[in-house]
Amino acid sequence: RSSPDVFESRMEKRSEVKRQPVGYSKQGEFIKCMEEKARSIFIAEGVGTKTSKGGFTKDKTLDSILNVEMVKEKSAEEIKQIWNQYFSAKDTVYAVIPAEKFDVIWKRAQKCPSFLYALPRKEGYEFFVGQWSGTELHFTSLINIQTQGETAPSQLVLYHYPELQEEKGIILMTAEMDSKFLVVHEAQCLANQVQLFYATDRSETYELVETFNHRPNEFKYMSVIAELEQSGLGREVRPAQVPDKS
């Protein structure tokens, strides 16, 4: 009663809040705005890209995915968040690799461009050969190589983009895979093994890579499985065993 103007102003604000839809919040609007900005940084899929015989993108560049000029103003942490947020909604493998770690991987890849990786299956393991071609890493199952030779198609390709390495200290990575042979968590297991074997500090682990490339007669398949089991990377891939009720 003492201040009618103030009372009317408060009632108007209350009615405005009531008119907002259920679940509305300024924070929600802010997040939505940020997501839209992040999407605007990425290029529409398929624009300016060429596919190879196996259906994978040929000569895939970072410019075909991301508006590089737009992200140059952002920090490495901001770019990492944008990259992870964008690809988390997609059925694929992706990563942001620190430049120092990729330096180690890259130097070793020049000396040892191929390696044999083990993928846990319901019974035993399936082996895949990973072959570096520039900054692309192509995976093909060993059985396909044995039956088809050099014409065996890739079943997974990891694309590493060094464009922001010097300025931001990060390498962006994404992938394409043949869904007839692999699902995402299996592809992720193979991608994780690249860091396990190529970025390791353990000389015994990297020695397996050197042996495979330079002393193949001494290479032992079981050593790869032993390293994988010790690292724990294969636990999430192997299907749970159904107990025998007999």
TrEMBL record:
Compartments where located: Mitochondrion
Chief site of localization: mitochondrion
GO BP terms in the entry: mitochondrial proton-transporting ATP synthase complex assembly
Superkingdom classification of source: Eukaryota
Keyword entries, A-Z: Mitochondrion, Transit peptide
Presence of keyword Mitochondrion: yes
GO cellular component terms given for this protein: mitochondrion
Pfam families attached to this UniProt entry: ATP11
Keyword Mitochondrion recorded: yes
Sequence similarity: Belongs to the ATP11 family.
The protein, known as: ATPF1 factor
Organism: Nycticryphes semicollaris
UniProt lineage: Eukaryota, Metazoa, Chordata, Craniata, Vertebrata
